Every structure is written in C-alpha cells, then in structure tokens.
UniProtKB/TrEMBL annotation:
The keyword Oxidoreductase applies. Pfam families: adh_short. Signal peptide: none annotated. GO terms for molecular function: oxidoreductase activity. The keyword Oxidoreductase applies. This is Oxidoreductase andH. Keywords: Oxidoreductase. InterPro entries: NAD(P)-bd_dom_sf, SDR_fam, Sec_Metab_Biosynth_Oxidored.
Length: 325
C-alpha cells in the first residue's frame, strides 16, 4: 500500500461507487469507507447492497466523524434508471468528491438491445457511465469548488475514475461509419475497443471543459482479478477462467488499492507535467498510452456522438447539439 494512500483521509467527503455489490466495485466501496468517506453504493441487488452497507459501516466505525453510507438500487441497463439514481444522490448529498464507475459484464453475446435500443454491453461499459458522470457533474463541481484555493502540491481534488481498459484497448476505427455497432460491425473485439476508446475520448472532453476545472477524470485498467467476472460466459470459458483466477489474479482489495490511488494522491503528484485532460492508468497504476486516433477532432466527434445517443433517452450533455449539424 502506498504511503500516500495510508495517510489519506476521506472524512467529511462523499464517494459514489457503481457496481458496488460485488467484485472490484465492492472492494472500492469498502476501501473508501475505511478511509472515512461516506459512500453511496450503487447496484442491482438490494440484499447484497444491504450487506455492503453493513460492511462499510464496520470499516468506518473508527472514523473521527460518523460516515453516512447508503445503498441505491439501479438497473444500469436503463439510462433513465441511471439518471434517476444520480439525481437522488445529487439531491441527498449535494457534493460528491469521488465517483468510481465499475459496472460491467463479460459475455459472448452479440448486439443485445436494452430498453433504450442500445447494446447491453456498451451501455454498462460506456453509455451508462457517461450518463452517470453527466448527471453528477453539479455535485462534482460543488465539491471541486471547496478545494479551488488549495495549493496543487497538497490539493486532493475531485476524482472521476472509470475502471475499464485504460491503455489496454485499441482504437475502434469504425466510430464514424458505425458508431453504435448496429450496422454489422458488432464483434466482441469491436465492442470492447469501442467502449475503451470512447471512454478515453469522452473523459478527455469532460476534463477540458472550463466548468470542470478541479475535477480529474481517470480511465484505468484493473488487469486480471479474482472476481465473479464472466458469470454470463459459457461454461467452456468460465471454468478455465475460474481455475486461473486464484493462481494469477490479484485480489479485489489489492486491485481496489491500485485503482483508488488517484483518489488519494495530491494533484501535483498525480499529474506531474501532464497537460489538462483525462489520465489513463495501467493495471499497475502507471501512466498508460493513448491510441493513435486520440486527436482533438475525434475527442469532439465522440463527445458529440455520445450526446446524441444519450439525448434519445432525454439526457443532455453540456454544449452538445443533437441536430446532427
């Protein structure tokens, strides 16, 4: 565990974790609770959500201030449910200091539409995550305003961390011709690359908006972790994965420790000499590469695309026209 992580405190701050009832998301929620954050855990299963709240309460019982933990039920396949959950948090918490997004699925299914007409996998890995971020921006900006006057060397500003495939995925070259993978481009590889590539670009767009100054956007990769990932996979894939996970996979808590480093590190230490924009981190928590198609033009194009897709569900991104012009 890094010394900065040991020394950090979240007392008096609020964190939101999606996918928090199992795996990496649960481990992140518990680690943040241990650090003193009041944590809002988001997931589908109410029983497991109640169990996570009990565990978080036990983790933070020695905190100098009582933490207010909560579970919010949300079926993240529905973008309207995502926004409803975020709006509940916005109203009840006012300020959010850390947002961790980890919801996902592993399957070999083809394009499978949600109630919004979007692919299930892309919804969990990308569309829904961007909807969460967008809906919580007012609360994130409120938290950022509290740290605006602090020195960069000491400031631990607001963080948005999307745990997916930072530095691992390739670019999705079909994003202009078949951006939603509805026109024959769908494959497991394209779906994975599109979600990761779009995350890079959209987080970069969020990070460069003047109103989001003081919020750092991070795209990280968890690596191979010993979780229940792949429960939707066929048996011939799931069994070998389960056999290898205890041998080669890191524990969820070890993974969370790495994924959450940005939530505890001072801004100057995390950014170094990097220019404003999103930060991409590897499974070891080190700076990772951008794809060759990560250009200002494509950042704007993917942000605009995202705005158009979300607008179909009544979700409006800042500064995005939905006319197609």
């Amino acid at each position: 565990m890094a010394s900065s992580t040991k020394m950090a405190t979240g007392v008096g701050k609020t964190a939101v974790c999606t996918g928090a009832t199992s795996g990496i998301g649960r481990a992140c929620a518990l680690r943040l609770a241990e650090a003193g954050f009041s944590v809002v855990a988001i997931g589908r299963n109410a029983q497991r959500g109640a169990e996570v709240v009990e565990e978080m309460t036990a983790c933070s019982e020695n905190s100098s201030l009582p933490a207010q933990h909560e579970f919010v039920s949300c079926d993240a396949f529905s973008l309207k449910n995502v926004v409803a959950a975020a709006e509940h948090i916005q109203q009840s918490r006012k300020a959010v200091d850390v947002l961790v997004l980890s919801q996902g699925m592993g399957s070999v299914q083809g394009f499978t539409p949600t109630v919004d007409g979007n692919d299930e996998k892309l919804t969990l890995h990308y569309w829904g995550r961007m909807a969460f971020i967008n809906a919580l921006l007012p609360a994130l900006r409120t938290a950022a305003a509290r740290t605006a006057g602090e020195e960069a060397a000491k400031r631990v500003s607001v963080r948005v961390i999307s745990i997916l495939s930072g530095g691992v995925h390739s670019a999705y070259p079909g994003f202009k011709n078949d951006p939603e993978l509805k026109e024959g481009s769908y494959s497991l590889q394209n779906a994975a690359n599109a979600a990761g590539f779009y995350t890079d670009l959209c987080l970069d767009a969020f990070a460069r908006q003047p109103r989001n100054e003081g919020i750092l956007f991070v795209h990280s990769a968890p690596g191979f972790v010993n979780t229940n990932w792949g429960t939707e996979m066929p048996l011939y894939i799931r069994l070998p994965v389960r056999a290898l996970q205890p041998l080669l996979g890191k524990s969820p808590s070890s993974c969370a420790e790495i994924m959450l480093r940005p939530a505890f590190m001072p801004e100057a230490e995390l950014l170094g000499k990097e220019k404003p924009g999103e930060i991409i981190l590897s499974e070891k928590g080190l700076p990772a590469r951008r794809t060759d198609l990560h250009t200002p033009e494509n950042v704007d194009a993917v942000y605009h695309l995202t705005g158009q897709v979300l607008a179909r569900s009544g979700i409006m991104l800042d500064d995005v026209s939905t006319t197609g012009e």
